[in-house]
Amino acid sequence: MRTVFRTSEVVAARGRGAVRHAIASGRWQSPCRGVVVTHSGPLSLDERELVALHTCAPASALAGLSALRHDGFTGVETETTYVVLPEGADRPRDAPFSTHWSTELGPQDVHPLKEPRRTRPARSLIDAASWCDSDRLARTIVIAGVQQGLVNDRLMHVALDRRGACRRRGLVRESILDASGGIHSLPEKDFDDIRRSAGLPPPTRQKVVRGPDGRYYLDVSWDALHIAVEVHGAPHQAVARWDADLIRGNEIVIDGRRLLIFTSYAIRHTPDVVAAQLTRMFAALGWPAA
């Protein structure tokens, strides 16, 4: 049952006097100017979101993680309500929610029929990644949204192109590639740059391999030292995929090799950590030989 209304709606239906009496008597409440809630109890998250929408300009929409919640996104939760307003709209005074502005709030970015009014999943993922607190969380949000089937990588690229300049644009693009598991998302050259900067010898093998799940990874080995490295293009969150990775890793160790596993994110963004672990592995096995 709907409980949150613009004041003008209930005044038109009940009359101004009746609305004032219901609020004054405590049966109803008005948490923000211009909004009426037809009960006196605590507001649910859904109700707080509707209050935020009704407080803002009519063309506003839920956005980011708030919009994603209604489309079934899981894994990242927030109590903050995110609203995007049309460019030039006034921010409500003392608004207890996060506001952003955009010139792109047409039907390509905001679903014209779904309630509550909200941005489409691709746009929501991009906004959530742009507005969150860290690069790691931004990457998690984008990859999770694609892996959960809310949107495909093609729609994400199109939405990002339309979105224009935004915070973490490069990281979002990179994460879309990682989520799709494409061969071009694998940092083959980046890994080799790290290896050379650490002064380590060329590997016996370094090639992109297609796994049984259809995803690609970088497979590197130094046969003389029995060292193996795998670089995964995206987190393998599905249980079956994760289990297959563990089994494969066990087989590599059983064959007598030492195994290091990195994500493409680590290769691109924490190369010092990768280089340090590689160097320590080589040193533990007596390289360079005395």
Descriptive account of the structure:
By secondary structure, the protein is α/β, with parallel strands linked by helices. Helix content is 44%, strand content 15%. It contains twelve helices and nine strands. The strands form three sheets. A four-stranded mixed β-sheet has the order 6-7-8-9, with helices on both faces. The chain has a three-stranded mixed β-sheet with strand order 3-4-5. Strand 6 and strand 7 (216-222) form a beta hairpin. Helix 4 packs antiparallel against helix 5 and helix 7 (153-163) runs antiparallel to helix 8 (169-180). The chain starts with a strand and ends in a 6-residue tail after the last helix. The mean pLDDT is 86.
